[in-house]
Design brief:
By secondary structure, the chain is mainly α. The chain has one domain. It is about 70% helix and about 0% strand. It is built from 6 helices and no strands. The protein is elongated, with a radius of gyration of 21 Å.
Length: about 120
């Protein structure tokens, strides 16, 4: 059963478009804007994390080019996966918040709770 879910997750991931480094940075480096001092360094740090450390800061900085035009093809796959994980994390966080709010409202009106008072 776990194998079936794993295959489904891979199928979903394969259906998503590859992600370019600049696109990943625009999406996930939000506390500093493109063109601002330090943006490229923040972007490189984000790319290092997004590639799960496969590509280190210095490698990205020196070898990928000023606009990341010389990035390796394999990095696009890693960025796609990192983007998907980020989206899942945000979605689950929002879902968790909603569940907590719903549970609080249910607790206010649940008959068995009123018996405890």
């Amino acid at each position: 059963m776990l194998t079936r879910y794993r295959k489904k997750a891979i199928d979903v991931a394969n259906g998503l478009p590859l992600m370019e480094p600049n696109e990943y940075c625009r999406r996930w480096v939000t506390h500093i804007q493109p063109g601002e001092r330090g943006y490229r360094a923040e972007c490189i740090r984000a790319l290092e994390k997004a590639t799960f450390g496969v590509y280190k800061f210095n490698t990205i900085d020196r070898n990928w080019g000023a606009e990341f035009e010389r990035r390796p093809e394999a990095a696009l796959e890693l960025l796609r996966v990192a983007n998907m994980l980020n989206e899942i994390d945000i979605g689950l966080d929002a879902l968790n918040t909603s569940i907590v709010e719903i549970l609080a409202k249910v607790r206010q009106v649940a008959p068995h709770r009123q018996d405890e008072e």
